[in-house]
Design a protein that fits this description.
Layout: E1 4-10, E2 15-24, E3 33-37, E4 49-54, H1 63-72, E5 83-91, H2 93-97, H3 100-109, H4 112-117, E6 124-129, E7 139-145, H5 150-161, E8 169-178
Antiparallel strand pairs: 1-3, 1-4, 2-3, 2-8, 5-7, 5-8, 6-7
The protein binds protoporphyrin IX containing FE.
């Protein structure tokens, strides 16, 4: 069983929120800090909000792409990666009504992995799934990078937001943090 991770928006925590932008759909309140705990059940009485997700199996990645990703990617928690982004995303009913092979075709033709690969190893990433947890978002995406790669990260999100895949994004919040 995968353990659930909680992102807790609160008055204290490891990551200080420096910016919260609503990209699409309803926004969420801007906390001062975000803390991350692997205890998905821990109650959060003082929190402004808490979002839960879990690390899951891959859905769309081909074997050759998996190998390329593994060869290029950097781990989280690098000492120099003091900047982070938490981008919660919800996809539309139209997306979820598609068959798996149709979703995969859109994911492929949008070149999500090809685009992403260009930004490794500078940007480290982790994807959390939450659609099956009855959460307000379908995915919590987490990225870490060094301050000198902040502009690079802007370019990456800009590129992805212009793909066909993003036409199926209903709600997206872009939260930037520093450690
Ligand atoms: C750092 C470069 C990136 C790489 C290498 C990358 C790679 C990937 C890969 C391999 C998957 C598919 C996992 C699977 O097979 O199920 C994926 C999914 C996803 N990525 Fe990225 N990604 C990057 C950046 C981003 C960014 C910046 C965002 C958000 C702005 C993002 C949002 C997502 C979402 C929401 C999914 C889930 C899609 C779905 O299952 O429908 N990714 N990414």
């Amino acid at each position: 069983m995968n353990s659930t991770t909680q992102f807790i928006g609160s008055h204290s925590g490891l990551w200080k929120v420096i910016q919260l932008n609503r990209v699409k759909g309803e926004s969420i309140a801007k906390p001062e800090y975000i803390d991350i705990t692997n205890d998905g059940d821990a109650p959060q009485s003082n929190a402004l909000w808490s979002l839960k997700g879990f690390n899951s199996n891959i859905r769309y990645t081909h074997k050759d792409e998996k190998q390329l990703l593994q060869a290029k990617q950097a781990p989280l928690a690098r000492p120099e990666a003091t900047c982070a982004a938490l981008i919660p995303i919800k996809k539309s009913d139209a997306w979820w009504e598609l068959a798996q092979d149709e979703r995969r075709a859109i994911f492929d033709s949008s070149k999500h992995i090809g685009i992403g690969l260009d930004y490794l190893p500078q940007i480290a990433r982790k994807l959390y799934h939450c659609r099956d947890l009855n959460e307000p978002f379908d995915f919590l995406t987490w990225f870490e990078y060094a301050p000198e790669n902040a502009a690079l990260f802007e370019r990456l999100v800009e590129q992805l937001r212009h793909t066909e895949e993003w036409e199926y994004v209903d709600r997206e919040i872009d939260i930037r943090l520093v450690r």
